[in-house]
Amino acid sequence: MSNEVITASPKHAAAGVDYDAIIVGAGFSGLGMLHHLNQLGLRSHVFEAGTGVGGTWYWNRYPGARTDSEFYYYSFSFSREVRDAWKWSERYPAQPEVLRYLEFVAEKLELKQDISFNTKITRAEYDEDRNLWRVTTAQGEVFTARWFVSGMGVLSAPSTPKIKGIESFRGQVYQTATWPKQGVDLSGKRVGLIGVGASGVQIVPVIAPVVKDLFVFQRTPNYVVASSNYKVEDDWMSKIRTNYDDIHKQAVSHGFAVPFKKPTVGAKDVSPEERERVFEEGWKEGGFHFMLETFNDLATNEESNAYASDFIRRKIRETVKDPLKAELLCPKDYPFNGKRPPGGHGYYEAFNRENVHLVDIRANGIDEVTETGVRVGERHVEIDVLIFATGFDAMTGTLTRIDIVGRDGLVLRDKWKDGLRTNMGLAVNGFPNFFMILGPQTPYANLPVAIQEAVGWVSRAIRYAEENRIACMESSAEAEEAWAHEVHRAGSATIMAQGGSAHAWFLGANIPGKPREFNVYMGGADVYFRRCEEIASNGFRGFHEGALATA
Ligand code: N01
């Protein structure tokens, strides 16, 4: 990575500030936001820590990284120019293709000229006297703007556990979320992998045929759903192109923001034969179809959930030949959906290879990393490479790892120390003229659709403020309390509340010391989008009650 800072030449912003809006992050969120603000005629600028666009898809370059969602709803539909010209090649696009897509979006929408790459933001402080944000880069430069928008991502602050002895290890250590751009040659190596969430599950089958030995250190097994990937033929792509608007419309009226059929019966309400038939069909269709298109109560009813959990365990036992390995791979003490289920691409099959070893660390975790390997109890596993696929400080990590300072010196991470408070996950009381694209307490949903909705909503809010001469858009404390209550209510009504041992990131339960609460809204993306629309069409009720001044 070079240290060159590429900053675009200034255009004209409102008097007294460098930019009208500063956006942090050049992934789906930042690019979408920049495009929408450009369309409003604002002078906006994006600061991005990476050397290119892509966000999540820039950083997560580990072997096997690909979407768990299908291409036609894992993309933007707002730009006809982009959707008419771009062609996806696989049902579940791989990381290089998603990255190329985002580069294409940036080129087509002429966004790059307004992005400074290689520029990490370390602090953003609201200046009450001047009603502007002062944003500081790691290089010490300071820029000002009236609006400050985070597009820093929800699963973008990697979490690596501090394991005793790690600094003594003489081999190579990698994190999936910061995988080297130039790749890593794992051929013939003895590799240890910690973590079997979506990242670990994707890397296993891809590196297994290359490495000498792969030791998978598993603490909690996952419910991995078959994906069934295949090529996107031209006629499928053309059909999608002509239907993008309908697909988006269907997605925003779905609880998970996907254009899926909504099942009308519960798993417990049909005969065992019918249940098996429907599950089998969903399994063949693959991925989120199993979770969302089979029955309508897998996330809310224990009995129905138990049928799904049992179906997956039977699939694991059918696939994995060694019965001991199969049993270890079967999740038994938390329900399907208790963690976000990953999509598999030959994950269970990989354990039939002789060079793939499953090391159960359920009871006591890893005792230590030594100079030459990993010790688990009495057993010492010799390895050359150690890979951490240990997840993220999700939803809040990017926002709390830098200093975001609002009114009266209030720091965002301190505000959230004992519990989250946001207005619809979009804004925070005490932080005027600051918006979050996919902040905490936004829906648990397919992200590109949720991002498209959020950037549209924020640009409407900014336009509303400009047109109505509202100098200060600040969420009310009452609206935050009401939203926190609703997030808790909706989450508690789901199976996800029983994460149990699952350490789910959406509960903050994977990060030691983080308050355990729903970091996402489980009440349905459709419900959330309708509520956002209602707020917008009622003069952004709850979002500028704290306004002190008019322009
Ligand atoms: O992270 P995770 P992830 N010792 O938090 C283990 C999205 N995503 O990066 O379950 C030993 O799910 C931990 O064990 P346990 C997607 O939303 C999407 O895989 O806590 N193990 C777990 O196995 C996903 O849900 C895609 O017991 C330790 C793993 O590390 C989210 O990102 C691809 C440990 C972490 O799993 C996060 O997925 C990738 C320790 N000390 C990611 N600490 C696609 O859509 C943690 N673990 C393609």
TrEMBL record:
The keyword DNA damage does not apply. GO terms for molecular function: monooxygenase activity. It comes from Paraburkholderia pallida. Belongs to the FAD-binding monooxygenase family. Keywords: FAD, Flavoprotein, Monooxygenase, NADP, Oxidoreductase. It comes from the Bacteria. Transmembrane segments: none annotated. This is NAD(P)/FAD-dependent oxidoreductase. Its cofactor is FAD.
